[in-house]
């Protein structure tokens, strides 16, 4: 058991020298959270401020039911690790694999040029030229995968450009009109830009998969009050009654990103009139910390 915790014996008492394995309530000394665990070894210590006996544990099973604060901290850490992994893989693909493929292509091009000078049979040169074409496809694929993992615009404070690029890419795949109006006139922190982009990405994917829309419009911009606004709307079928699951992984991920940064996420939908997603985030990290407890996540049916 980690330091800074105490085990309080249930009412009724138990001999300190004849303690059987039982479930005990465990609370941190700072009073932040409480769990239930199983005490498997102990040595008696003093009583706590309420007079209940306390024991130092030599062995305690992990919490069976973590509290909401633990869930939120765990989800935040998982998202952070996932984003870091995406960034690492994208950079390695672009910087290492991309450069390796480029070097191979240059060697093949030089070889083709030399073989032509030596009047090598055309079928040999054509095969090498075909290999150069395949390498070009590989380079393009590496760039596409790396950009999908982590758009370069997020690292260059170009949130509008990253959203426009993703909309063009998805429009080409889905054959749907996806206009974007970007008015980001203030500097956006990388963490905030990443959260906004991931919410946009999830909203766009949901609209393409489920909305049966012919147009998905996006507006992203900053306000004079120092806030980032992201608005995604479609003209699809909306969310049918009984199909809205606020506990789905997609909605949970979107809401957690908004909560983490002290922002608001609002989703409205009318059957037959499409769905609208509105995300608002404070631009300053200090602002996010200050209003974290008052962050709101709403899902409404109009």
Description:
The chain is an alpha+beta fold and about 300 residues long. It has 3 domains: about 5-65, no CATH class; about 70-150; about 160-300, 2-Layer Sandwich (Heat Shock Protein 90). Helix content is about 45%, strand content about 25%. It is built from 6 helices and 10 strands; from the N terminus they run E-E-E-E-H-H-H-E-H-E-E-H-E-E-H-E. Strands 5-6-7-9-8-10 form a 6-stranded mixed sheet. A hairpin with a 4-residue loop joins strand 6 (about 215-220) and strand 7. Helix 1 runs antiparallel to helix 2 (about 120-150). Residues about 1-20, about 30-45, about 60-65 and about 285-295 have low confidence and may be disordered.
Concise account of the structure shown:
This protein has 302 residues and is of the alpha+beta class.
At the fourth level of CATH, the homologous superfamily of the largest domain is: Histidine kinase-like ATPase, C-terminal domain
CATH topology of the largest domain: Heat Shock Protein 90
Give the helix/strand class: alpha+beta
Which consecutive residue ranges, at least 5 long each, have pLDDT under 50? Answer: 1-19, 28-44, 60-65, 286-297
- The radius of gyration computed from the alpha-carbon positions, rounded to a whole number of angstroms, is 28 Å
Give the topology string: H per helix, E per strand: EEEEHHHEHEEHEEHE
Number of domains: 3
CATH class categorisation of the largest domain: Alpha Beta
Summarize the amount of helix as a percent range.
40-55%
Number of strands: 10
Percentage of β-strand residues: 15-25%
CATH architecture of the largest domain: 2-Layer Sandwich
Distance between the termini: 49 Å
Number of helices: 6
Q: What topology, given as strand order, has the largest sheet?
A: 5-6-7-9-8-10
């Amino acid at each position: 058991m980690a330091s800074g915790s105490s085990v309080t014996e249930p009412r009724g008492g138990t001999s300190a020298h004849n303690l059987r394995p039982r479930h005990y309530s465990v609370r941190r000394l700072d009073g932040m959270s409480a769990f239930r665990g199983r005490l498997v070894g102990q040595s008696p210590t003093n009583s706590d401020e309420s007079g209940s006996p306390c024991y130092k544990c030599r062995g305690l099973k992990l919490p069976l039911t973590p509290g909401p604060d633990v869930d939120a901290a765990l989800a935040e850490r998982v998202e952070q690790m996932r984003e870091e992994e995406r960034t690492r893989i994208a950079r390695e693909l672009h910087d290492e694999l991309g450069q390796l493929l480029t070097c191979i292509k240059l060697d093949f091009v030089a070889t083709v040029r030399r073989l032509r000078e030596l009047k090598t049979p055309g079928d040999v040169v054509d095969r090498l030229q075909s290999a150069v074409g395949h390498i070009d496809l590989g380079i393009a694929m590496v760039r596409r995968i790396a950009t999908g993992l982590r758009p370069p615009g997020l690292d260059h404070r170009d949130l509008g450009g990253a959203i426009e690029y993703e909309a063009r890419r998805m429009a080409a795949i889905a054959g749907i009109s996806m206009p974007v109006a970007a008015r980001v006139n203030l500097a956006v922190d990388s963490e905030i830009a990443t959260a906004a982009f991931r919410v946009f990405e999830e909203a766009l994917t949901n609209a393409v998969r489920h909305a049966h829309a012919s147009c998905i419009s996006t507006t992203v911009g900053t306000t004079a009050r120092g806030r980032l606004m992201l608005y995604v709307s479609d003209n699809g079928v909306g969310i049918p009654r009984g199909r809205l699951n606020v506990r789905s992984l997609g909605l949970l991920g979107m809401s957690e990103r908004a909560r983490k940064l002290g922002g608001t996420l609002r989703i409205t939908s009318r059957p037959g009139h499409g769905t609208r997603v509105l995300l608002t985030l404070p631009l300053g990290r200090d602002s996010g910390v200050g209003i974290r407890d008052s962050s709101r996540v709403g899902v409404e049916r109009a």
